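Hi support team,

I'm opening this ticket because the web form for multi-chain structure prediction keeps timing out on my end. I have pasted the exact lines I submitted so you can reproduce it. The total is 226 residues across two entries, so I didn't expect it to be a heavy job. Is there a limit I'm missing, or should I split the entries? Thanks in advance, R.K.
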Amino acid sequence: DIPMTQSPSFLSASVGDRVTITCRASQSISRYLNWYQQKPGKAPDLLIYAASRLQSGVPSRFSGRGSGTDFTLTISSLQPEDFATYYCQQSDQTPYTFGQGTKLEIK
Amino acid sequence: QVQLQESGPGLVKPSETLSITCNVSGGSISSTYWSWIRQPPGKGLEWIGYTFYTGSTKYNPALKSRVAVSLDTSKSQFSLKLSSVTAADTAVYYCVREGYDRGAYFDLWGRGTLVTVSS
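Hello R.K., no limit was hit. The queue was backed up. Here is the completed structure from your submission:
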């Protein structure tokens, strides 16, 4: 298995802030890294795939970077609808594994 | 527009087998990999396994001895069976489509079905 570690686990921010979430893989996964957003009571939604490619319909304020073991998800200007939990996920090899999640809360 | 809908029992007794079906509508099931992912209440996501329309499967080693995923193209459905369940298997179970572009990703999710293991 490839454990994925996200930081921070909790993040408090305000509307308009720029925030960055980090995801680290225990070994190199090239660019096989995806990001999801999950709101309470809902299934996750795909935001970013292949480390930096924006899923269709996702606002451009979301961006992803990284390769190898270190990755980031950045939201350039937080909107009220962005307060949610974010997960990274590696697809380099099975079993696919997820980070533990980062809960983004309103300050 | 492709949609996924899980149907399951809601409540399963310890030591019994959990069975959930996912109905795929609005598109072909014979085109990609189909996965099951679960999420215990208040916790993170765990990939259970996937199937392809050819019948090939792959499972999470942590669950491999208890899990079976199958696909029925004639009904446009795929299914999950998890045997010998315990309270630790209580979770929301999602059926999920796998997309591929420079790598695999989960681009379409069902709403999820909560399965509680309790006597």
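A quick check on our side: DSSP finds no helices and eleven strands in chain B. Let us know if the file doesn't open in your viewer.
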